[in-house]
Amino acid sequence: MKRVVVTGMGVISPVGNDIETFWNSLISGKCGIDFITKFDTTDYKVKIAAEVKDFDPTLYMDKNEARKMDPFSQYAMAAAVQAMADSNLTDIDPEKLGVYMGSGIGGICTFLTECEKLISGGPRKISPYFIPMMISNMASGNIAIKFNAQGPCLPVVTACATSTNAIGEAFRAIKHGYADAIIAGGSEAAIIPPSIAGFTNIMALTTSTDPLDSSIPFDKRRSGFVMGEGGAALVLEEYEHAKKRGAKIYAEVKGYGNTCDAYHMTAPHPEAIGGANAIKGAINEAEMQDEDKIYINAHGTSTPLNDKSETLAIKKALGDKAYKALISSTKSMTGHMLGGAGAVEAIAAIKALQTGIIPPTIGYKEADENCDLDYVPNVARKADVNLALSISLGFGGHNGVLAFTKVEKE
Q1: What is the rounded CA–CA span in Å between residue 148 and residue 95?
Q2: Could you identify which of 54, 233, 259, 355 might form a hypothetical disulfide with 185, taking C-beta atoms 3.0 to 4.6 angstroms apart as the criterion?
Q3: What is the DSSP string of 229-285?
Q4: Is pLDDT at 46 greater than 60 in this prediction?
Q5: CATH for 4-244, among 3.30.420.40, 3.40.630.30, 3.40.47.10, 3.40.50.1970?
Q6: What is the mean pLDDT of the chain?
Q7: Stretch 238-258: mean pLDDT, rounded?
Q8: Which of 365, 325, 350, 342 is nearest to 405 (CA)?
Q9: Distance (Å, rounded) from C-alpha 312 to C-alpha 87?
């Protein structure tokens, strides 16, 4: 089996639109949550979200390209352009370069805009670009066109686990020899009235009106997640291919777990069986050792059920080592970026591994007896970890876990 490493990263997020800004925001505990500016929330119970700020798509594509892309595709493209520039991957067989870029819902902004046109002006008002702007595979398609990636190309749609699964499936494709490199990740742009109303009415979102005290994972006061948006991309590359061209290597992808609760549309399994098995799958493939020092970027949504269930899953998978692991939820700062969350959090896990700095879970004040692990509350911590896990748990019972290590040279 081939080894797989990360040679490039890019991000568009509520706390920064490049890797350096994003990472510095996380380790300094900067919160990207604020009052919604994209629409009037007067009639809405939920008033806050984690919006992307100061995003200029023309830094990554020309105006004509941007005009034909939904924001979710723009975020994905921007992250991919950053990641490819970071990787400096310019000499590769096009048939061995792939794209696995997912989205939980795709072009819902476009869908809403075009439906409003249809209602107000009739069918002739619908844009000819409506369908290609809306469909979820188009982020992968557009990125493939941009970089002439003629190899395996897939979107992934597994709700909140989307981009973790995209990275995991890309890892497997390279490991088994189907590609030399894959641009993998996910994006989302769903801070619009129907999304906020829909998530509110299934009681998934917090109705807190204090941005700094709203996304509070593992805190006893938690009452729901905060919707975020943005995108992230990683360049995954076969190790020998990367080494031959002298590429900068951030980390090695060592394991991937993918399971389903097969239990409920939105609620996690009360015994956390699927989540625990996904963690076990990742650490077993990574050949975790007893002496390994572990950082876990948790799914940590700040919902009452998720955080309790995820804590149980970590305990079931790691046993006593769960109490020694350093765990944090960067959703306390970015909100929940849905289909983009897993890739953004994979980057956070890799940066923690690389720098020896563990980002905090901000807003943590009141301990919960059901969440009794070390969640690195409020302040970043220095720690030399050698195994980093990123956990994503999605509606539909989808569980995805990635395991990263520092690169051990042969």
Answers
A1: 9
A2: 233
A3: -EEEEEEEEEHHHHHHTT----EEEEEEEEEE--S-SSSPPTT-HHHHHHHHHHHHH
A4: yes
A5: 3.40.47.10
A6: 97
A7: 97
A8: 350
A9: 37
Give the predicted TM-score (pTM) of the model.
Answer: 0.97
* DSSP H or E run through 392: strand 387-394
- What tens digit of pLDDT does each residue of 66-94 get? 999 999 999 999 999 999 999 999 999 99
Pair of tokens at residue 112:
């809403």
Size of the chain in residues: 410
Question: What are the structure tokens assigned to 402, written together?
Answer: 């990635």
Does pLDDT of 283 surpass 90?
yes
Alpha-carbon span 238 to 38, nearest angstrom:
41
Say whether 264 is catalytic.
no
**Of the residues 31, 109, 241, 336, which is catalytic?**
336
DSSP state of 151: S
336 among known catalytic residues: yes
Residue 149 identity (one-letter amino acid) = A
Whether residue 398 lies in the annotated active site = no
- The confidence score (pLDDT) of residue 394 equals 95
Rounded percentage of the chain residues whose pLDDT exceeds 90: 98
pLDDT in tens, 106-148: 999 999 999 999 999 999 999 999 999 999 999 999 999 999 9
Angular region, 230: left φ>0, alpha ψ -120 to 50, beta rest: left
Nearest-angstrom CA–CA distance, 361 and 380? 8
Q: For residue 241, what are its two tokens?
A: 């291919």
Q: Of residues 31, 109, 153, 160, which has the active-site annotation?
A: 160
* C-alpha gyration radius of the chain: 20
d(CA 277, CA 98): 28
Half-sphere CA count of 162, side-chain side, radius 13 A: 30
Going from N- to C-terminal start, the domains of the chain cover 4-244, 255-405
Cβ atoms of residues 223 and 207 within 8 Å: yes
CATH of domain 255-405: 3.40.47.10
For residue range 152-180, what is the model confidence (pLDDT) as tens digits? Answer: 999 999 999 999 999 999 999 999 999 99
Q: What is the DSSP letter of 256?
A: E
Residue 41 token pair: 């929330």
